[in-house]
Amino acid sequence: MKDKEKNSSSTEEHDALTPWQKEHLLYLESQGIDPEIAEEPETEILLDKMLDSFEEEALDASNEKDEGNSQSTIDKPFSFSDHLPNFKAYRDKKLRKRLLILVVTFLVPLLGSLYYISPLSKVSAVVVAEHPLTPKEALIESSQIVKNERLWPQFFARQRIATAIEKANPRVKKATITLQQWNQLHLHVEEYSESAYLVKGNDYLPILENGTILQEPQKEVTKGRVIVENFTDETLILETLKQYKELPEEIQDAISQITYAPSKNNEELLTIFMNDGNQVIVGISKLADHMKYYLQVAKEMSEKGVIDMEVGIYSYPYPSNETEKEENTESSESF
Q1: For position 233, what pLDDT does the model report?
Q2: What is the three-state SS of the chain?
Q3: Alpha-carbon distances, residue 305 vs 237, 261, 300, 315 (angstroms)
């Protein structure tokens, strides 16, 4: 009798429940959860939060539907049972995200520690990439890069290293350092070209395009390079070479040697020896302007001689041997 009364009361209570409460009880029974336990405060709060999240998801989903389906969505009663099964997928997604964060948090420091103690974190080699005229050993020594020492402190100081290389090696115009093959430092250098040679006794000293005289004596000169003599000031050399480069190529090829021969009235006077046997007297600042007339003047000369371009432009033949003897005799008699 008591069981019947209990069943009847539970039936009445079940009938008195709202549709939402009925679906809630059905879900608890399907999950094996005792309804009485579910009524505890903590469980109710947890379920309320779950249902609130499902309700928010349902609202978001309904807003994303197009206008054509909006009427059918409003007419159809909302059912939490359609969304409760998604809770497991949502929970798995959260767990995977947390697991990924934990793995990254512990894996990155571990890999960093392994790299720090491995040979990859040290300089394995210093390589000169090109084949410069400057000895490779001198470039590596002036770089002060230490092999088998920490890679990154030396790599991050590459600008300072490049500056040190340029200062220590006069031929180097620009130096750069790059990282290759994980832990190799490569030196790339751009050098000044040799524009001329300075006569020094029986040797020739290379003169770079920036006017620097290298103390590297050579017995022979490279074809196509002009030879200069008696210069001591690099500024005068640089200005002379600047004027020389402005000449037409055919006149450059016709010049054999440029000698610095200042006079009392002109400190920048030059004597230029030509391949055809003539000599030209001209000032440094007028070299490019006056020498462009050389070929025309040389054609008008009946014999080899001197072309004076110091003030105007005129020519005269070399003194003959008889004239030289007469001049020597007159000078000895007057003495």
Answers
A1: 87
A2: CHHHHHHHHHHHHHHHCCHHHHHHHHHHHHCCCCHHHHCCHHHHHHHHHHHHHHHHHHHHHHHHCCHHHHHHHHHCCCCHHHCCCHHHHHHHHHHHHHHHHHHHHHHHHHHHHHHHHCHHHECCEEEECCCCCCCHHHHHHHHCCCCCCEHHHHHHCHHHHHHHHHHHCCCEEEEEEEEECCCEEEEEEEECCEEEEEEECCEEEEEECCCCECCCCECCCCCCCEEEECCCCHHHHHHHHHHHHCCCHHHHHHEEEEEECCCCCCCCEEEEEECCCCEEEEEHHHHHHHHCCHHHHHHHCCCCEEEECCCCCEEEECCCHHHHHHHHHHHHHHC
A3: 26, 17, 12, 7
Instruction: Chunk the chain into consecutive blocks of 10 residues (it has 335) and report each block's average pLDDT, rounded to whole numbers.
Output: 48 58 69 57 52 56 52 50 61 83 82 83 92 93 93 94 95 95 94 92 91 90 88 90 92 94 92 95 94 93 93 89 47 39
Q: What is the pLDDT of residue 146?
A: 93
212's tokens: 């620097």
Residue 331 confidence (pLDDT): 41
Tokens, residue 305: 């001689």
* Residue 202 dihedral angles phi and psi, to the nearest 5°: -100, 5
Residue type, 291: M
At which residue do the structure tokens 């000293």 appear? 205
